[in-house]
Fold Succinate--CoA ligase [ADP-forming] subunit beta.
Amino acid sequence: MNVHEYQAKGVLKEFGVPVSRGVAILKASDAGAAARELGGPLWVVKSQIHAGGRGKGKFTEKEAGDEGGVRLAKSVAQVEAYAAQMLGKTLVTAQTGPAGKQVNRLYLEQGANIAKEFYLSLLVDRATSRVAFVVSTEGGMDIEEVARHTPDKIVTFSVDPATGVMPHHGRAIAKALGLSGGLAQQAETLTAQLYAAFIAKDMAMLEINPLIVSGEGQIMCLDAKISFDSNALYRHPDIVALRDETEEDPKEIEASKHDLSYVALDGAIGCMVNGAGLAMATMDIIKYYGAEPANFLDVGGGATKDKVTAAFKIITADPQVKGILVNIFGGIMKCDVIAEGVIAAVKGVGLEVPLVVRLEGTNVELGKKIIADSGLDVISADDLDDAAQKIVAAVKKA
């Protein structure tokens, strides 16, 4: 689960992390009062969408201007003008795709006197099963570009969960950033604060870009991006309350209501699979045969008939889906349950695109018989390779 920048900073502030003062704005008419409350002489007007690259982004509407999704304002009047231009408009960044995202919220923040900019993030390093710090002197830039062109400017280390963060971790960050004296002490404190927040709130990723040293000699988090582990949200009702469903795909929201692992993609072949590994393999072989998957959908190992029906309805609700591949390897999940769910879904919502079903495992013969006796126009497949070829061919023929 992702949150907006101002929400992320609110969470970090609970742990003592230094952030600028700011006010969230939902209506352009509130911008002037918010600016006066913060005081000048400089304000930063930030678009709030779940995507990076906002400063370099462009609005699709002419009346929004050409200054991107993050703007510096030097007067209250300018703050009001920017708010009116940006709210309700569509911002396209490198991470939104060409469709962009509508800006429904702004974050008005006090301007900062920036002396130096750095990059700092925490993430789960699956190779070591630890939380890793990623630090670079190249703040304000896309870390992917830094890694590609100057990888020597990125320092990475992980924290042993048995000890937690230690003073030497803070010193490592200070050294990597070239900080000494009082700034090194601040970096050590910040390291402990960020790690504590990461662990306490079950974060999956925490990115500060840029982390700055102000002209007054203070370290501050000028931006913050947080992703939370969705599997741990039951422990954090305060974080769940921050969810902004307008930033999410409606199909993904519906899937979450049925405890389905669903991610919308850009292709034309809808996939319903049990098991994340099998789902990835299914998408790969679809691409291998020259087509693109429309989604990742894992119904899980113990899905019920109702859950399978819900999954099928979500796939068919996507107008870009031109064919559907159901690929089930029955272990805990029984093939006859999948078959009954597919039939119920087809009868409930109809079937206007080709459907290929590959079943294998527990009760496979019963599952195949249920589908064969249903009278539905379903293409049966013997294995994954056969299934992929058949659905790609059916979609191209259609």
